[in-house]
Write a structure and sequence with these properties.
The protein is an alpha+beta fold. It contains seven helices and ten strands. β2 and β3 form a beta hairpin. α2 packs antiparallel against α3 and α5 runs antiparallel to α6. It is elongated. 27% of the residues are buried. It binds copper (II) ion. The site of copper (II) ion (CU) has 7 residues, from loops. The site of copper (II) ion has 7 residues, from loops.
Amino acid sequence: MAAILASTSGASAQQPQNWEINFQGAASPIMRQIFEFHTGLLIVITLIVLFVMALLGWIIVKYNAKANPVPAKTSHNTVIEVLWTTVPVLILVGIAIPSFSLLFAQYDPARAIEGYDAEANPPMTIKVTGSQWAWQFDYPDEGISIFTTMKQDADRGPDEPRLLAVDNEIVVPTGTVIQLQVTAADVLHAFAMPAFGVKVDAVPGRLNESWFLAEQEGVYYGQCSELCGQPANTGGFLTGHAFMPAVIRVVSPEQYAAWSELAPTDLAGANARLASLISAGTPAPTQLAAR
Ligand SMILES: [Cu+2]
């Protein structure tokens, strides 16, 4: 339990850590619900495994040929048959109900955030387009377009993780619902941002939707999660799937306003302005975590 609490609350929750066996920490309401559902399911399946193992052990000890030389001739027991049919059905229905409500909530913020009012706090739209092998992010209402590619080792800063850092980060404010529209320009990709509980297929010619709400400032790393480039007959040339990360930098609404004012016309200038605002304030959680 302590490990679960530590991994959900820490600032180091934004990227994979060595030797992790659990999810990345939750940084959005929907990811917290996914985490809780997963933990509940783990308890249910553990109890079932223990129960079946106890039954097996009981039979091995009590009904082996030595202990029980004359086997019973029972072929039917109506009570047991009714029980082993209805109890699993009830368990599965008990799992299906929260599972479906979680699935619906992944499409509808009102189901995941108590008292969510789309009028008072309108969502922001970001269109995500996957291509071999980079992500394009468009903010249609703000007129911002960001093309991001992975940073090569030579360009990477000491605090930036290998295979995850990118040249242009997407910037979003805390406390705003970000409506994602996900598509692809060439082949299947999938946009995954584990800390936010987002994993959406990017399909050419189709617009898939999801949403997230970032609760904490910081830098969050994700990757393409659909195998989108195989060696084929090109001698290993088409192998960029592992090299299309995406980075979301979550900042305060004030910092976002300063960035988005400049970003439509001068992305580099907007990023520089944001960097100076962040270094003037408190360090971003990812910098703390790296030390
Ligand atoms: Cu891809």
